[in-house]
Amino acid sequence: GGLGSSFKINKIAYHPTIPNLVFIGTNRGLYRSTDNLASWAHFATVISGDTYYADVNDIDFHPTNPNIIYVLDNTSGNSHRDNVLISTDAGMNWSVSGTATGNAGTTAYVAVTPDCPGCIFFASSQGVWKSVNEGATFTFLSNPDESCHAGFAVNDQDANNILYGYVDTEISTDGGMTFNQVTWWSLGNSNHGSGTFQENFENSTAYVHADLRDAECVNGVFYTATDGYLCKSTDNGQTWEYLSEGTAIRENYKLGVSQSNHYRTICGSQDNGTSIKKQNGWVEFYGADGMEAFIHPLNDDWMVGSVQYGSRRRTKDGGESQDGISPSGQSGSGNGYWEAPILFDPNDQMRIYNFSKSVYVSDDFGSSWTALGAPVTFTDPIQHAAIAENNSSIIIISKGDKIEKSTDGGATFVDIKNNLPGDAIRDIAFDPQNDNTIFVVYATYQNNGNKVYMSTDGGSSWTNITFNLGNMPVHTLVVDHSADANIYIGTEVGVFTKTMAATSWTLYNPDLPTTTTEELEIVFGSNTLRAATWGRGLWEYTLIGRTDYPAILKTVISNPPTDAAPKETIPQYVTSEIHYDNALTNVYLEWSANTPTFGNVISMSNTGGETWVSDQPIPDFPAGTKMYFKVFAVGSSGDVSETYKFMYEVRPFEYCDAIGNNNGGNNELHITNVTIANVNNSTSDNAYYTLFNDVVNLELGQTYSVSVSGAPGWADNDYAAWIDYNGDAVFDQSESLGLVEQNNSTATAMFTVPASAVTTKQLRLRVRLSYWGNDPSPCGNTFGEVEDYPVQVADPCSVNIGIDDITMNEGTGGGTTSFTFTVSLDDDCANPVTVNYNITNGTTSNDDFVSLPTGTLTFNGAETSHTITVQVNEDCLEEGDETFQVNLTGASSGMITDNQGLGTITNDDTAPTIACPNSLMPAVISLEANCSGTVPDYTGQVTATFDPACASVVQNPVAGTTVNTPGPLTITFTIDDGVNPAVSCNATVTVADTEAPQISCPSLPDVDGCLAVVPDLTGAILANSSTGFSGTQGLNGWSYGMNFANDPGAGFTNLPNWTGFVWNNPGTILDFPQLDANGGHPQLENLRWAVRRWTSNYSGEINISGSFYDRDLNCGDGAHVRIFKNGVQIWEYLNISGNSTNYSTNVDVSNGDLIDFAIDPIFDGGCDDTHFTAEIKSAYEAVASDNCGVVNITQSPAAGSVLAP
What we know:
Layout: E1 9-14, E2 22-26, E3 29-33, E4 41-43, E5 56-61, E6 69-73, E7 85-87, E8 95-96, E9 108-111, E10 120-124, E11 127-131, E12 139-142, E13 151-154, E14 162-165, E15 169-172, E16 180-181, H1 197-203, E17 212-218, E18 221-226, E19 230-233, E20 241-242, E21 252-257, E22 265-269, E23 273-278, E24 281-286, E25 294-295, E26 303-307, E27 311-315, E28 323-324, E29 342-345, E30 348-355, E31 359-362, E32 370-371, E33 384-387, E34 395-399, E35 402-406, E36 414-415, E37 425-431, E38 434-442, E39 452-455, E40 463-464, E41 474-479, E42 487-491, E43 494-498, E44 506-507, E45 517-523, E46 528-533, E47 538-542, E48 551-557, E49 574-579, E50 586-593, E51 600-608, E52 611-614, E53 626-634, E54 640-642, E55 646-649, E56 658-661, E57 670-676, E58 679-682, E59 689-691, E60 696-699, E61 703-711, E62 718-723, E63 740-743, E64 746-752, E65 763-770, E66 780-794, E67 800-803, E68 806-809, E69 816-825, E70 833-840, E71 855-859, E72 865-873, E73 882-889, E74 895-896, E75 900-906, E76 913-915, E77 924-927, E78 933-934, E79 943-945, ...
Parallel strand pairs: 56-66, 59-66, 60-66, 67-74, 68-75, 77-83
Antiparallel strand pairs: 1-2, 2-3, 3-4, 5-6, 6-7, 7-8, 9-10, 10-11, 11-12, 13-14, 14-15, 15-16, 17-18, 18-19, 19-20, 21-22, 22-23, 23-24, 25-26, 26-27, 27-28, 29-30, 30-31, 31-32, 33-34, 34-35, 35-36, 37-38, 38-39, 39-40, 41-42, 42-43, 43-44, 45-46, 46-47, 48-49, 49-52, 50-51, 50-53, 51-52, ...
């Protein structure tokens, strides 16, 4: 310490023969210690008189003279970069050597060898020089193809052997005059062989990691220190081996964990690319600088790694092979960040998100990409990203101090920085149990107390939770899935933790070196916290408080998720490996479909050791369904472990596409014959993929030959064949038949049907011929041809299974007809035999059947036949013959030789017809005394053809219908059997009234005098208080007003201004009296009355009738109602305070007489609003009747006529 913040140590060199003498080369000069660094002397410029600090980048010692020491000064200002600085007094004083002409100030390195004690070797990227006179002069030797960055050494036993290099290594065996390359950093180079990258890494002796940083030779053995490994060569660089394998020194940037395999991790590191940790070792997956990576949660062979600036590499076989999947134009400097994020969707785990200047999404694990949205507050590449665990439409991104949120899956973003500091964000994380809880961390050194922030409202506001952390940079944060929601942070000096609710942090560094933790991730099932460190490799420890919990180490399903698996109908059992030091009390899984709600329980049982298997498969759902599940392990102390949320999408039960082609028509490489078991099929070149109908019949445990021939007969054509023995629609490598080419046009093999082959359904054989060097695969498109054949595997007992055909009439009416098929075995030797059956419609529809049965027939003992009955619905439809099929599949033993029974339904129905007669009898329906008649049944009079079981003639109106209206009546006849078009016809009859109307006339009074006025005898209404009301005074003879109580028979005053509710009162009178459409209210007792007046337009005796009724039975004490003629009272009623009071009175009137209806209060002025009705008509009325009630009375002479004696 104390040497300054910009101080840099370049090299430490212990004198090889003088004890405790140490030299330290720095960018601030040379330090010399004689007491093993307890103290030191400082030579700031090394050469006296130099202006600048010496930048001492290399130190070496004379092989035989302990007082002679060599150093190099890389400071350009001192002008010694082409020279060696030499001390002849053990480092006390220094001088400048001769010049290495041509070096041109390039950084150089020095080497010596006991084989030539007076020699000094000087090397840079400009070449190699040699001095044979201890530095007095230098001679240029050669300039190797490589550059040099401290990778320079001379063999200490043979000065002719010199090592030089940087990216790759070169060796000279002639003293530096010439150099030859001896290592190749790229594992794909042919000098390593033809294996995979990993095979070449493990086996090649010509591999040394790129970027030599140091080189030495000790006792004739070369050692090199590179960006990746410490290596050595014992044969002057011709072969190499690793020495540092297993040392924890990687400078890791990022890691990705497998949630289904505790032992698997993928890491990205500085200069050492991407590496995969497996249970038994490491796979060096890809070079360059390794960055962000992840592993598919349920398929630990599927991974994505990254190179600097967002270039993506994918593997689907655990790192054995790989391909590039970067979205077009989204990688490289300026497009992607140095550690560009890439993430999988936690709820759709084949969906992955790429973050560059914008967001891209792939729904097929990187095979294709769709552009989404881009940040709104910055345009540079996105630096950090996180996806919410429960609602993966929520995505957070950041760059520098900018942070944004998307709630629509990355399509749009909004700024959520709010009250966060202005420093650069280093990591973003969600609480896995609450998508509204978000964390950000800052890797700043400033003592500002701004290291960790938390939001509990989705980023609307932020709380500083740095608490007691101090000023250390924080690089990463994760939250576990426990009830306490423990937070873990990776810092510059290790890992700290606290619960969600705590207000202080605790160091959590069990056995972890004090080093920078770049990224943390949690393996849920094994309760493991895993840390990628800078310079100390990969570390792990259990989650806090869970050391003794059950560890769910591995979880798999029967067919791990891929582009084509798992397939519908294939049972998916769940298998877990669980370690626990005590006794597990329960192991189970919970599942759900389409949403991760879980809750459906399937128990799991121990099958031996630490292996647990689900008692039933996860239920089968249609293709496209997303299935979710977790595994739970319960320990004897109630300690429960649970895995991560696993998911897969059910794929269609389909075989992968395998298509041949004819190379654009230039060549016609095709299969000419396939011979296997009972099939011998010769073909021409007219198709490049064919699924043949020839069933290959095989038996369990039997050995067969297969022969495939092709044309043209080119040498090294590639032949391959597979049988999908397990029936999962996938051709595994273990299912290859192992064809071996016998000559240019034929390949053969012998194979044995495994005892595990599926016998309950039809399997498939795939045969492929492809052009040489194309490495035949069961899937994909390549030059050549593909043929598929159905395969039926049976038990060795030879039993043939078949079904007969049935032809029957369908039948008519609403019943059913039984079609009974017979399934037969020709031998009972294999019993018990089961065979499945199902029905397919053919030309029928589902409505033709009661049901389409499916099931399984079981033949026991000596049984050789069973029946299958299909109930066909009888109908009435005239139609053609129809067919359906009964299909046999999946025999447990034997061979299905006739797998389809044909059912033929013959038609026995005709369409209805109908015709009506010209007239119906009776043609007249008479209306009786009550003006009603009855419609008779005419159906027997029509001519019709139809099936009585399906329909009948329907008459409308039906027989028995009552008719009341005279006139013509249409009778309609219809036949409708519900399936054929309905038919109908019409006929007409007459409805007649046969009775005359009756009338009686009133007696009229005698008239005194010479003239008499004829009254109205028709019953016409002269006036009606309700229907005649209007808002206009005098209209229809009615007026509305008031008078004074002391003048009851006179003094009528109109009330003006109809409001639509009441007539307004005059003057200052407020509400009373008032009149509306139905009645009125007087003004207090002995004041004003409410009056309604009718002016007669008739002369003669009239009848006035109607009712008075109190508006509100619960209010007031009643009213006094009166009727006046020309001011003379003709009727009265006192105290209308209850229900309606009816009245009727006769009076003689002349044209112009005044009839007043008056209401005055009694007793008090309470609520005496009284309603009334009044109907006025002639007092004399003729009474008429008719059986049909239709009477029009006319009068002559007319009412009002004046008659003389």
